[in-house]
Amino acid sequence: MGVIFKDLLDSGKFVVTAEVAPPKGTDLEQMLHHIDLLKDRVDALNVTDHQSSVMRFPSLGGCFAVIERGGEPILQMTCRDRNQVALQSDLLLAYTRGVRNVLCLTGDAMTVGDHKQAQGIFELDSVQLLRAIDLLEEGKDMGGNELSGKVSFCKGAIVTPEADPWEPQSCKFEKKVDAGAEFFQTQAIYDLDNFVKFMDYASQFPVKILAGIVLLTSARMAKYMTDNVPGIFVPPVLIDELSSAPKGGALDKGIEIAGRMIAALKKDSICDGVHIMAINREEVVPDILAEAGL
Amino acid sequence: MKTITRQKPYEEIMQQLEFCSRVFIVGCGTCAATLQTGGLEQVLELKEKLQDSGLLITGWAVIPTACDEMTAAVAAENETAIQGANGILVMACALGVQRVNMYLDQPVLPSLDTLFMGLEEHSGYFMEACAQCGQCVLGYTAGICPVTACHKGLLNGPCGGTNRGKCEVDQDRDCAFTLIYNRLKEQNRLELMKYYHPPRNAQVLPRPRVKILDPKEMEQWV
User: Fold this and answer.
1) What pTM was estimated for this model as a whole?
2) Is there a cis peptide before residue B64, judged by omega within 30 degrees of 0?
3) pLDDT tens-digit profile of A186-196?
4) How distant is the Cα of A175 from the closest Cα of chain B, in angstroms?
């Protein structure tokens, strides 16, 4: 790609990011295949950090692989598994190996994952992690010591536009803005009217918003997410649309819906870009992009 | 306030008693009695069970409050039975176990796991109200502790797992930050939701934490 992600954000281009998931184990083949498939089709690739609290190959290792293969990685960093010493140290390593973008997350609860007996750390939260990066950029660590060699990152965070209740979420969003977040990738959005309302609020802040697009693969999945996943609302009309797809055609319908939403967001310049999450269906991200006319 | 405890699995109790053939049992008449983990009834129940497993029970006592210094007097009262034992099984919280350990020479073994300090919100409902973190933020959080009420102990607002005011780990559990937000709103103090909490200082007091009263303070207290 050759263009730095931060410059792209600042350029006003409609930015597209996607994500790859490190494997459980040392067989990297599928992750590397997904990196190769997507690195030149999107502006940056998030590498997830033990997503859903499932122990895997590290996000940092995935980011190195993205760089080695010529892509631009976004390091997802949660506060669940590391204390402040380990987080800062990983940021130093990331910087020296060419990682320039970090997405700061609190992290899922340990109990939702596959190591329920493990200690969730959460010594820092996402806001404190953003501020810790600020310090490292100034050449100081959290202990107040001087660094020999600073870091510099484009800092991101997440926000859930459909959070219920919204007010506590908005307070946290504003704390993240104050803590130096430059871009936000949102939780999945499906209701454009609701998202436009969110953007009316969010656009008063000097940050870039990338709308979260999670591929719907069936009516059942859409309904499950609405009922069970915090901050996700799939409007009934979309669920009906998926149900009406011919047998075996729900995935194609999901690709069509995702592409249509991206195109609508771009056409009306509703937000600054999109972040595509095709959980376990990374293969079809190029189809979504084609559907969106990108 | 009560210290919340639960019985260890019987297999684990037996494993601890592997090298003990003669056992003296200590219960506690305060928290463990309320929680029905170490009161008179539970002591007698466990006594029967251990006897059925072939152990000799040299005696038992339910100390009014196992964690306080009266434990010394109870130890003296039961001197013969205690001396006949080669293991002391304590059905009290870990404070009680350690108090008993101060007075006796034999191995002192816990029969309970100590879980948390519980505030009795209403009859029979105990809530973990304080994690004794050493840096109280209740003044900023409408008197609701995020360190205990949020399962991640977050300080700066809700995580993405909150849903309809509930917590992702338990649909019946309120999200601490919805509670805090609502209470601050009632108090017209919503600006506190924007207050940035720096990371907690884990070095408030290094472990083991010790507090020594000076003699003047002691005089007033006595």
Assistant:
1) 0.94
2) no
3) 999 999 999 99
4) 6
